[in-house]
Amino acid sequence: MKRTHWCGELRREHVGLEVVVNGWVHALRKVGRIVFLVVRDRSGLVQAVVTPKNPNYSLVSELSLESVVAIKGVVRLRPPNQVNPEMPTGEIEIDVKEVQVLNPAKPLPLPIFDKELMKTTSETFRLKYRYLDLRRFEMLRNLTVRAKFITALREFFNANGFIEVETPYLARSTPEGARDFLVPSRLYPGKFYSLTQSPQLFKQLLMIAGFERYYQVARCFRDEDPRADRQPEFTQFDVEMSFVTAEDVMNIVEEAMRYAFKKVFNVDLENPFPKIKYREAMDKYGIDKPDLRFELFLETVTEHVRGLIPLREGDVARALRFNFSEELTKNVEGLIKEIIPSDGKVKYVYVLRGSNDVVTNEVGLAGDLIKVFNLGIGEGLVVTSGEYIKASEAIGNLRNSLGKLLGLADKNTYKFAWVVDFPLFELDEEGRLTSMHHPFTSPKLEEIPKLDTNPLEVTAQAYDLILNGYEVGGGSIRINKRELQEKILAILGLSKDEMLDRYGFLLEALEYGAPPHGGIALGLDRLVAIALGYDNIREVIAFPKTKEMTDPMTGAPSKPPEEYLREIKWIKVLTD
RNA sequence: GCCGCGGUAGUAUAGCCCGGCCCAGUAUGCGGGCCUGUCGAGCCCGUGACCCGGGUUCAAAUCCCGGCCGCGGCGCCA
To answer: Which residues does the annotated region (Aspartate) include (predicted)?
Structure first.
């Protein structure tokens, strides 16, 4: 019995046809002596009917849910009063002639087609039986949409003269940035590959190779703690172009987004996307990836609170005020406590003025703050104090989450924007200069002289693409001259020897006719997740890891057998 | 590494604050039965659980301590 039709495509026009469908037993309803069997495949559902006259009657009536079957039968119209308007195939049903049970199924551990129960089923459990979880139409849709989105981007970039090139995942470790996943080298005991954090250097080398326009759907690996929007391995849609300015890159990426969003979601995006300067973003929103779906601005209130809140030399105070409805008081308070770091670097006060009471973490201050800020009933105020960036980020982060909690952010709006004019460097915990983007980012050429005098004031030719409070892309114009690249690496504290050891291949390549070039990496998981309305990228990844970086299904990570460790010359394992 | 929340049948949830009325209730699933037009089928009967370890107490699902696991966040994420 060979499949002739998909379940979900059968319609009135197929009436009278003998068809064969394959699929899973989605539902089995025995009403009196009639058995209604709903068969499911990727395309949808169709009802089949068996009565006691049918030689397959007992076989069908004893089927278990989710068994795999092949059904041969004749499509017929349902009696007029039995049409199910909720079902695309609801006008017809299959009068069963022959049934093959290809594989009976045991009862499922996961109630996959009980929407109510699945809403609350723990994610660990879904991940343990991910192959069942993925049978749900919602997951099928998510991954289908993801595939369509990738296809749309490929179409767009192919049509614009880009070449898709694969680059290695096993590469040389470069200690900057995130922690690497290391892979021991069997042939060179004591040496390791690292899984690429991104194709950054390879794509630059492709530009030097003269490919001019490249893209790739690239897996990236970073050994840092996951979050709802971060996984240890994730997918970037990676793009690089030669002979372009930052504007050129941003323009083509905007076009790509407009094309893909229209094609896949039928959404018209703004044209052009707004651009915000980094400093303006920090000042107005306190964060470099503000959610622009709502207007709510930070204020600098250092002078208003001087004398009330203890300020160290150079500290600033930043404030966010907002209206909230009283039943959310607890949630707002919880959010503030959760988001603002309690590491002592930032101090914070909040005052939530209800109609009968005031909720605050500083009883002694609340009265004064209400007076100073003229805080009305139903208004909340959060003041952070400390070093400008820290105080701003703490409250900016809060702003993005508060927008969701207070319903300020419209779920059906996609608010893209570019954040530009990032500083080239920032200071790390130890007060050393580090690259804000990465060490291959070009400074604005006219600011090169400032590299020696005020490196922190040098602006990068870098740009982030943001969407609804998430960073969904980041890129820059790269350095294409050896001299400048060496200078940057030197400023970052690398000795000549270290430079040559780690980046010698790049530095040399820059001398053999490296064109000006730049590009971007788009966070594909985030883009698709946000477009579908999820905060959690695991919903658009077929087999994601948990927050603790495990896979409950396969049991990864696992302990390799001793012989294997011996073979790869890596038998010393330190635990803890 | 840190903070918060959580862990009760296959799944989900009630009970936990305020210990005894709980050999743990409910929904769904599963097993059996009834029903010839169901489609979240319906009705009847049955089945099955307190994360692990220690402590307090006459008595622990409930209180305390430790652990494990998960989710969210902070740090981290060039």
So the answer is: 200-203
